[in-house]
Amino acid sequence: MGPGCTSMRNTKDPTRDYEQRAEKLKTSKIIFVVGGPGSGKGTQCEKIVAKYGYTHLSSGDLLRAEVKSGSERGKKMAAIMEKGELVPLDTVLEMLRDAMVAKANESSGFLIDGYPRDVQQGHEFEKKIGPPSLLLYIDVQAETMLKRLLKRAETSGRADDNELTIKTRLETFYKATEPVIALYDTRGIVRKINAEGSVDQVFQQVSAALDALK
Hints:
The chain has a five-stranded parallel beta sheet with strand order 2-3-1-4-5, with helices on both faces. It is globular, with a radius of gyration of 20 Å. It has ten helices and five strands. Mean pLDDT is 88; it is low at 5-9. By secondary structure, the protein is of the alpha/beta class.
């Protein structure tokens, strides 16, 4: 065999490599992290990453990064959002899958933050990526979340940090999330975390739930 044949043999097929990594996701630890605005979900995700080395993926962050990158997909999404429309579920899932596949060989697990937002998203995620090992529900009373967000409003300067908008966001969250929690509760993989306490108290509960996965 000539040298040309050897280099051909050693060349990686990008499509095959992608599919092999994607296959790994079906047996990876995948944690859905669900919590309302002001629940402290983001802080808990940071602590999980620091302790367990999981890859933290937020669909909103991925979407913003894609738009900022100026890629073809990003340009299409920017055009959709400028019209005030929602980015299609297939596009969001494609982004999540690509981000997970990129880390499939090195990550000890994946934290999927703020997703799924409804039952259909959950079903589609499992069909295209893989089943979740756990759903962590960062559970905080609506009154607590309202207080926290109003406190943040004093310094955030965000237009959506006002009482009326916050109450609407909370109602939307509960309406969409309750069926999702009910779906995964039937499989016994929901861990409800009482997040009324301090960050460290909450993280003790989160750690106990994650340690039980080993």
